[in-house]
Design a protein that fits this description.
Elements lengths: L5 H11 L5 E4 L4 H9 L4 E4 L4 H12 L17 H12 L1
Parallel strand pairs: 1-2
């Protein structure tokens, strides 16, 4: 990232917003993960990762935060997890 690293960005961003953050990085050291989580990241995923691993991180993050109807009939709203999972199953 130009001008600041991810940790600096996280420090500044967390002062202003509470949007969920998943760090996706090549840094695999335990100290890097702990620092990212301590600075306010909600999860830490190391590259290379499997799509199911990332999908599980999204599900953990949003479990209990978003309640969408199973049929997703509300205009403009979709159950993205259900769509993504059905897409993955069709790829097999």
């Amino acid at each position: 990232m130009p001008k600041m690293d991810g940790y600096q960005f996280l420090r500044v961003y967390r002062k202003e917003r509470q949007t969920p953050i998943i760090i996706i990085t090549a840094r695999e050291e335990e100290t890097d993960a702990v620092l990212g989580l301590d600075l306010g990241a909600d999860d830490y995923v190391v590259k290379p990762f499997r799509m199911r691993e990332l999908f599980a991180a999204f599900k953990r993050l949003y479990a209990g935060r978003i309640r969408l109807p199973a049929s997703s009939t509300a205009p403009g709203r979709r159950n993205c997890f259900r769509r993504a999972e059905s897409h993955r199953q069709s790829e097999r």
